[in-house]
Amino acid sequence: MTSVLLYALGILIIVLLLGISIALHEIGHLLPAKLFGVKVTQYMIGFGRTLWSRKKGETEYGVKILPLGGYVAMIGMYPPSKPGEAPRESTTGFLNSVVEESPVKVSKGHGEHIVDEITRVGDVGELPDADRAAPGAPASMPAEGNASAESLSADGLTPEAVEEAEYRRGLAGWVDEARDASAETIADGEDHRTFYRLPVWKKIVVMAGGPLMNLLLAFLFFGIVISGFGVAQTSTTLGAVNECLVPASSTQTTCGSDDPAAPAAAAGLLPGDKLLAVDGEAIDSWEQFRSIVAASPAQPLSLEIERAGSTEKLSLTPEPNEAVVVDKNGQTVLNEDGTPKTATVGMIGASAATETVRLPITEVPAFVGENVKNVAGIIVKLPARMVDVWNAAFGPDERDPNGPMGPVGVGRLAGEVVSMEQAPIAARAQFIFSLAGSLNVALFVFNLVPLMPLDGGHIAGAIYEAIKRGWAKLRRKPDPGPVDTAKMVPITFVVVIALGAMGILLAYADIVKPVALFG
User: Final residue of a domain: which of 313, 342, 357?
Assistant: First the structure.
């Protein structure tokens, strides 16, 4: 029973930390938007039906039923499609574009009337007069008779041109419907408070505020992990000394009479001995000592150690051993023919003891940077990683512990760790903070992907606007105005559908084939 309660507690803790991270992400959008004078109508955590809300000033704050993110609704995120038309309200949340801004809906202007807008895209050439709707005729019917694609073609448009026109009309309608989905016309005198009228740098600050808040949280959580709890590191103290040397591929656990004695044991080294110097060179880390040993096969080394408070000198001769060469990232180096590259290195049959070291706070940026690089690498290879997840979920393959994981998997992992009663409480707490830090790094990197409706897509739109306006200025052309990111709505829905499919696959895989970090 205790384990079950601890498992549930682990899930609850990580859900709360994730909720706090999402809430602060949206505050990262909210604060600069209000600072720059943009009217913010909603600040919501979650999506779907509202569980609780309260209006303070002009902004409604609330919590919704689906805890899958959040959003901030600002008026005029999309500029009007035509001069003089009222700009539209939209949100920063990508799931909200599906849950609450579905293009199937028809919006109500100030709740008084239904907006029924019919838009035509005319870039494919003017249609003949006979094919234009007469005043009062239904929009879906030609003005004269039952003109069809064939009649259009007979009047000068090829079937391919007709098909392209229909396709472009469909996209235009999609864009317009998305504009109208959660739209509310801007009240008189508030046009200057729309998002689209902000200077480019302010748009970037508003949209980057959310991801940057997650980055700050990652600094906080990882600071607690490495500077508060500390990290396990190899020390210059021996943790174990083997009696003999056996091949790395061997499974034997005891030494046989024919096995050669380990150089460390032959030299008289014992667990607990602290390494001080080798051939007069002071030893500051285990990696330094291991490098010296590896570079000295069959060469006697003068060793200075500290044992029980006193200093002793020993002679150590590393045993030559063929080992696979690895790079700085631990990856096997290959020969030109694809076989693993090997080299003769020294081996002594001893390993280092580990100790918990609290790193200075100045080490946090590098620690976070390494995590950002790793997550970015996963996202760049996300399609291939998702194929691996599919193969694991529906086949015999195991999940990659360094691969993508969904909310279900994160919750399971937190529950498993917290319910490990044999582990110290401090170690379990440290893991939860580390997990929260990793989640915030993931939120930071993922939201900066330059695709709508992610924050990175809006930032990319603002950068494109700066380039477009700057180029027009250099050429002494009229200001082209703000970029209409609403035209990216078709791509937005493709991205949302892909993300939804990815989420479903990860949830299924996290249930039937969860990531196993502890064997």
Answer: 357
